[in-house]
Amino acid sequence: MQGDPSNIYYPTGMYLAYPDGTKNAFASAQWFSTTDSCDAPRMTISVTNPRTVSANAKGVVDNRDGRLKLFVSENGGSWTDIPIGDFYATSTRQVSEIRVSVDGSNDSWKQCARLNWNTTPAWIESPKATPSPTPSPTPRSVTITAPNGGEVLTVGETYRIRWTSNRVSNVMIGYSFGVGSLNWITSGLVPNQGYYDWKVGIGNRGTPSSQVKISITGYENGVGSSTDDSDNFFTVTAAPTPTPAPKKTVVFAVDPASASVEVGKTVDIGIKVDTQGQTVGGVEFRLKFDPTVLSFEQSFNPPTESCGMNNAAGSNQAGLINYAVLTDKTLKCTLTVVRFKALKAGQTPLTLVKEWTLAIDTSSNELTLERKDGQVTVAPPKK
Questions:
Q1: Are 109 and 116 in contact (CB under 8 A)?
Q2: How far apart are CA 295 and CA 26, in angstroms?
Q3: What residues have CB less than 8 Å from 201, skipping those under 6 apart?
Q4: Phi and psi for 308 in degrees, rounded to 5?
């Protein structure tokens, strides 16, 4: 007689279920009864080919004082008590039979039970564990990413060499023009950071050169090394010749450009210089005057805007004031102040003599000059 897996009373007999292709053990079943009594009822699930399975079932046990027992036959086995109420029975063993029996402690209900399946019991073959393969060690490697061919670098610039790597602790970096011409950039091992800032230079080889490659050897401490070269050649060009800044004009000026004085009195005339921000190696001037109108009295540093380098010397006989000093600085100041005494009424130019007024740079090259002369007018004494 056919049994109903969802609502079964167990008299004496056997309930058999055979797994089908979907491994649902209770998908079809036959119930065999030999007596109407409740003597030792049981349910047995037989397995033709023993295998590791999960026999899962959730249901309700209703036999008052009785208990269901789950028996797994594996060349013998053990009983597992299932308390009255909801239960979930699972076995994941190499089995040939799963048996459910009733064993009650109350005589009136002894060995009688009803199973109400809430879910269809399923016999599910447990997946076999696939051992994880032992991972192969990552091979040691270094791979240049830049410069890797086609780039144009300039001598003197800072270029960042880049690479990727595995199992590399330190590297040595060099450049070459082909096989057998390796020149080291690093003087030894440097830490592997994945980049190196190279101040581009290729020794005494002429530039431009379009046949340059980078070579990197990566070292795994105590194990070994791996080397990579740029895939293709790159070019290194010569540094551009710097265009010299145009030299500015050095200005010498008589200050004030025009002065007046009475006979018998003195007048102070400054000689100023402005090198327009250029560093000069030395300056010199010669100031010419009329010795019949003025006479040289003395020279001195002014109280303000002084270069602090007065060394002027005058000659009344020749009507000349001479000045020369070596320096190594920029100048925008008064070189000296010359004091003249007025001899007679008249006018005299104060001329910076072209041939003897000059400024040189730190390489002793003459710089372009602008001279600004002056004059002094001497008036008769006031009566």
A1: no
A2: 139
A3: 155, 156
A4: 75, 25
Distances (CA, A) of 192 to 154, 221, 224, 228: 25, 12, 15, 14
pLDDT digits (tens, 9 = 90+) for 152-211: 999 999 999 999 999 999 999 999 998 888 999 999 999 999 999 999 999 877 678 999
Residue type, 12: T
Residue length of the chain = 383
Q: By the 8 A CB rule, do 25 and 19 touch?
A: yes
Cα separation, 226 vs 164, whole angstroms: 12
Among 23-37, 162-176, 263-277, 284-298, where is mean pLDDT lowest? 23-37
DSSP 177-216: SSTT--EESSSS-EE--SEEEEE---TTS-S-EEEEEEEE
Domains defined for the chain, CATH in brackets: 8-125 (2.60.120), 141-237 (2.60.40.10), 250-379 (2.60.40.680)
Distance CA 137, CA 112 (A): 63
User: What distance in Å separates the CA atoms of residue 264 and residue 159, rounded to the nearest whole number?
Assistant: 74
Read off the tokens for 99: 């048996």
